[in-house]
Amino acid sequence: MPRRTALPPTPTPARSDAQPAQAPYLRVKAFLKAGLANGQWAPGAQMPSESELVAQFAVSRMTVGRAIRELQAEGLVTRVQGVGTFAAHLSRVSSTLTIRDLHEEIVARGHTHHVQVVLARAERAQSALAQQLGLDRGSAVFHTLIVHFENGVPLQCEDRYVNPASAPDYLAQDFNQTTPTQYLLQVAPLWEAQYSIEAGPPTAQEARLLGIDVHDPCLIVVRRTVNRDIPITLARLVHPGARYQIHGQFKP
């Protein structure tokens, strides 16, 4: 378990006497949120305990609990009963490019999701792929090719390679019941993600699986994730341009 870092001094910002005093739980919440934003607690690091925060801010345990619950609801921290509070991993924190499971997106729209597993097997990694996943050339790598459907219409072709060291039981999963993203976030929480997004044509195989023409524009996302220093997965996600949009928000 990551070592908990020491508490920095409690901020005491100046305010005008004309301004109302900030609620105690908001002071605790703002302190923790600022620490997360400036990297005081790295993803997965244990944060101050409720007892430490009670003593530092001279507030009740109920007040501290409310602050932490709100941060948890915002996806900024995770709590483990009897263990403590931890800074959330990148997949739960990012406000602009959250790694969200496609199944969750589809269900949130009130639609039905199902998959077609085209391929699920172990292969030998060629040089370029081996380098991306931190493997020796010729080492075993897990490969899945899955088509995701929304209300019966193909929405995404997911071509994914997985490092066996990060998810040794990956191929034993029933991907009709749990998606690769759902499973990998459970067994190999990511600390880093690298991605590229481009508009381009599908391959002949992708076009056939998505039911589109090879000249139809697609939104193509290539994503590589890492857990600490161990690569997890390299995925190519292809979406028909006429059927998929990326939504998000930005706050400076």
Going by CATH, the architecture of the largest domain would be 3-Layer(aba) Sandwich
Mean of pLDDT: 84
- How would a crystallographer describe the biggest sheet? 6 strands, antiparallel
Order of helices and strands: HHHEEHHEHEEHEHEE
Total number of helical segments? 8
Strand content: 25-35%
- The number of distinct β-strands equals 8
Per CATH, what is the topology of the largest domain? Chorismate lyase
CATH class type of the largest domain: Alpha Beta
| Silhouette | elongated
Describe the strand arrangement of the main beta sheet, using strand numbers.
Answer: 3-4-5-8-7-6
What would you call the structural class? alpha+beta
Explained architecture:
There is one protein chain. Helix 2 (50-57) crosses helix 3. A six-stranded antiparallel sheet has the order 3-4-5-8-7-6. Strands 1-2 form a two-stranded antiparallel sheet. The chain has eight helices and eight strands; from the N terminus they run αααββααβαββαβαββ. The chain is an alpha+beta fold and 252 residues long.
